Amino acid sequence: MAKIEIKNLDVHYGDAHCLKGIDIEIQENKVTALIGPSGCGKTTFLRTLNRMNDISGADVKGEVILDGANIYDGLTDVISLRKRVGMVFQQPNPFPMSIFDNVAYGPKIHGIKDKTELSSIVEDSIKQAALWDDVGDRLNESALKLSGGQQQRLCIARTLAVNPEVVLFDEPCSALDPISTSKIEALIRELKKDYTIIIVTHNMQQAARISDFTAFFLMGVLIEFGETSKIFEKPECEKTEEYITGRFG
Amino acid sequence: MISAITTEKIVKCLLSVTALISVAILFIIVIHIFINGVGVLDLQFLSDSPRRFEEGGIFPQIVGTLLLVAVCMAFAAPIGVASATYLVEYAPDGLVTKSIRFFVDCIAGIPSIVIGLFGLAFLVYYLGLGTSLISGGLALSFMILPWTIRVSEEAIKTVPCSYREASYALGASKWQTIRNVVLKNATPGIITGILLGTGKAMGETAVVLLTAGSGLESFLPESVLDPVGSLPVYLYIMATQGHTSAAYNRAYGAALVLILIFLGISVLAVFLRDHYRR
Q1: What is the ipTM metric for this complex?
Q2: What is the CATH number assigned to the segment(s) A2-244?
Q3: Cα separation of A228 and A247, whole Å?
Q4: Closest CA relative to residue B207, chosen from B106, B70, B68, B103
Q5: A121 touches chain B (CB under 8 A)
Q6: Which of A45, A52, A97, B219 has the smallest number of Cβ neighbours within 10 A?
Q7: Which residue of B has its CA nearest to A159?
Q8: pLDDT tens for each residue of B232-270
């Protein structure tokens, strides 16, 4: 079932035409990977899905329909949208607070004050992010003391704590070592049971390993979209094949 | 023909001498004041009120100075932080921010005696606040406001964008993000800057001379509308009206106390900054 339908999406940044007529359907409880060379618009695309592009002043035309409602129709409350569509960034960016406060930040700003409730949300989220064994006994320590991989899983826990439906990952492993990367990949595979996941990645093997669907972007255009196995084994477009086999990009 | 290596040596030598000169000037001033001022520094000088011209102590002036900077910062700090928050987070980049910054810089460039005159005309007479703690504190805050805006701006700008993004992505509103993430993380820098500004305001003479009091007050103000003595004005009166060595020594004593308080505040500022950084 389609969780998000994108219809004829165009994004401009000033004079730059970053995304051109994108049509795509994101399936619920699946992992969709966005691949393509740097500057192809995949991150811009990702950031249109939770309207993070608003902050940097992008001009968005077209429709992004989440569960039947266009998030760009002028009626959408950006705050509740971003609560439903969470995001994990390229660089782990925990707040310089304790581990507990990092995860509790989202629930708190959305009005949860009860200490027991907060504690159970924090614990559940950290467990979901497969980080409990690492930090369960030191939640009051600064999040900045954690390793890069742990910080990124903390950021995932922080995102899960506001109970989103969709989680966007923007190259979540590009700053991490291979062991941390494999932990995050395993985690993403686990998370798709409960969440719809969209991930931008530069790593072809990663896309092949964890995604169900793959979208290949080039110069702001969606070149090819389909099931990952098909994109990687029998791509229809020559450009796609050249890119995934490493002949350019 | 001098070789490059020799030139290098000469340049290095010259530069280190100039650096030494600037440090030496500081030391000469401090030592000079210390030698001349330490003689009058006793418990009576610190705890008594001025009696007649060359007797008694400077207790009301010490307290007065602290009260003046407290009133000054009670206005200048919140307004400075709020203005800086507006400039960095809300104001559209371009003409608006540029002109606000230009005017802020202009205030910073106004000689303090002119701000003092304005304080005298506007606060003391027009608003009828009289020569008082509130007039002096407010006039000081006009003078120090550009500083508090600037240091708060710098502190807010150093908060990484990734923190803001993380907060927005969790569904936080702009104000929630500013309050919980931006200002929280900028606080150490803001506090340090404001403390250093307090040091600057403390030594200001012209402004308080015209707005706060005559300098020889032998009493503590009972309300913000009472006149208040201050160390710089006391120092100025002693140095210009005394014409005796006893008066000069009292001026040096006041100067030494002023420097010691300034030093204390600076050390506190640096200590707090380092404490928060860890």
Answers
A1: 0.90
A2: 3.40.50.300
A3: 19
A4: B68
A5: no
A6: B219
A7: B170
A8: 999 999 888 877 888 888 899 999 999 999 999 989 988
